[in-house]
UniProtKB/TrEMBL annotation:
<dbReference type="InterPro" id="IPR058031">
    <property type="entry name" value="AAA_lid_NorR"/>
</dbReference>
<keyword id="KW-0067">ATP-binding</keyword>
<dbReference type="Pfam" id="PF00158">
    <property type="entry name" value="Sigma54_activat"/>
</dbReference>
<dbReference type="InterPro" id="IPR025944">
    <property type="entry name" value="Sigma_54_int_dom_CS"/>
</dbReference>
<dbReference type="GO" id="GO:0005524">
    <property type="term" value="F:ATP binding"/>
</dbReference>
<keyword id="KW-0804">Transcription</keyword>
<protein>
    <submittedName>
        <fullName>Fis family transcriptional regulator</fullName>
    </submittedName>
</protein>
<dbReference type="InterPro" id="IPR002078">
    <property type="entry name" value="Sigma_54_int"/>
</dbReference>
<dbReference type="GO" id="GO:0003677">
    <property type="term" value="F:DNA binding"/>
</dbReference>
<dbReference type="InterPro" id="IPR003593">
    <property type="entry name" value="AAA+_ATPase"/>
</dbReference>
<dbReference type="InterPro" id="IPR025943">
    <property type="entry name" value="Sigma_54_int_dom_ATP-bd_2"/>
</dbReference>
<dbReference type="InterPro" id="IPR027417">
    <property type="entry name" value="P-loop_NTPase"/>
</dbReference>
<keyword id="KW-0547">Nucleotide-binding</keyword>
<dbReference type="InterPro" id="IPR025662">
    <property type="entry name" value="Sigma_54_int_dom_ATP-bd_1"/>
</dbReference>
<keyword id="KW-0805">Transcription regulation</keyword>
<dbReference type="GO" id="GO:0006355">
    <property type="term" value="P:regulation of DNA-templated transcription"/>
</dbReference>
<dbReference type="InterPro" id="IPR009057">
    <property type="entry name" value="Homeodomain-like_sf"/>
</dbReference>
Length: 357
């Protein structure tokens, strides 16, 4: 089993928990991607990296940087969606002292900080049209103008962009500039979801076991055959990040160093949820028939008193089901809390204290 694993550097203030912290190239599709990265990395071409959240887009960008002649220069990753409209221009292009309230000193932006190296603009689709215009100018002129300044500063930066949205559809919706898209999209890398590269799942899972063993002292664990099958069959909506969180959870609850199938809580896929709904709807005629039979029996045995007895039993069962919680009982039955409270008192299920309960 190949173990071409790359990981993010340990950054204490990494706040975006949706990021994948490891990438592996064991699956044939991933191996093809790695070979393509090595092919295009030495060029100066801009690269647009597209993939679902948690697929490891920043890690792929770092691989491009590490296989380029810029590898000894800075690599800076910026999440374009992490800054407000008022701050993103300053963050990207820098500002001079007094450019805005709170600008107590001059500051270089991310383009200047990445000079000579590589700048990843993550979630590029979150930039406003106004900032897109300024970004396009920087890419064309290879120079930045700090906020509050008239002097341009030359920058030598290779720009990589990443997104989890379809920018072509954003162009049609007039949310993204077409000229900027073509400037960024010299090379496109489509990162497949984890469910499309099943050969990476177990190597990543074992990597995360090793990671938490080293960092937190967790016991190294093995997977049962059923657990392995469950991992391989799952649809992984959260991709690598979801796998890491799941392994962390499994290590906390597994027994005797074996991760069992039940230790892996998985979300149902849309197809599974649709099937469950279909099965529930299929059962409805059977349930309706049984209810009809029950009511007919009540009508025969308790003519004239069915409604009151049914209401009484329904309220008792609902109150018990909600663990004697009046608010939840009211919500379950679609009644107000005052109505439920009054009926419970009448039925002797609720005793009113001197303080008014």
């Amino acid at each position: 089993m190949r173990q071409d694993i790359i990981t993010l550097p340990e950054i204490t203030q990494r706040s975006h928990s949706h990021k994948a912290t490891a990438q592996v190239f064991n699956d044939p599709e991933s191996q093809k991607l790695l070979e393509y990265i090595k092919q295009i990395a030495p060029s100066e071409a801009s690269v647009l990296i597209h993939g679902e959240t948690g697929t490891g887009k920043e890690l792929i960008a770092r691989q491009i940087h590490e296989h380029s002649h810029r590898r000894h220069k800075p690599f800076i990753a910026v999440n374009c969606g992490a800054f407000s409209e008022n701050l993103v221009e300053s963050e990207l292009f820098g500002h001079e002292k007094g450019a805005f309230t709170g600008a107590l000193s001059s500051s270089a932006g991310w383009f200047e900080a990445a000079n000579g190296g590589t700048l990843l603009l993550d979630e590029i689709g979150d930039l406003s049209k106004r900032i897109q215009v300024k970004l396009l100018r920087v890419l064309q002129e290879r120079e930045v103008v700090r906020l509050g300044s008239r002097k341009s500063i030359a920058v030598d930066v290779r720009v990589l962009a990443a997104t989890n949205v379809n920018l072509e559809q954003a162009i049609i919706a007039e949310q993204f500039r077409e000229d900027l898209y073509y400037r960024l999209n010299v090379v496109t890398l489509n990162i497949k979801s984890l469910r499309e590269r099943k050969g990476d799942i177990l190597p990543l899972a074992y990597h995360f076991i090793d990671k938490y063993h080293a960092q937190l002292g967790y016991e190294k664990a093995e997977f049962s055959d059923q657990a392995k099958q469950k991992l391989n069959d799952y649809w992984w909506p959260g991709n690598i990040r979801e796998l890491e969180n799941m392994i962390h959870h499994a290590l906390l609850i597994c027994q005797n160093g074996i991760i069992q199938s039940d230790d892996l809580p998985l979300l149902k896929s849309p197809a599974q949820r649709a099937n469950d709904k279909h099965q529930q709807e299929a059962k409805r005629p059977v349930i309706d028939a049984k209810l009809k039979e029950v009511f007919q029996g009540l009508f025969q045995q308790h003519e004239g008193k069915v409604y009151s007895q049914f209401e009484e039993q329904l309220l008792r069962v609902a109150y018990d089901y909600c663990h004697q919680n009046q608010v939840k009982t009211a919500q379950l039955l679609g009644l107000s809390r005052n109505v439920v409270r009054s009926r419970l008192i009448e039925l002797g299920e609720l005793v009113v204290s001197k303080r008014g309960d």
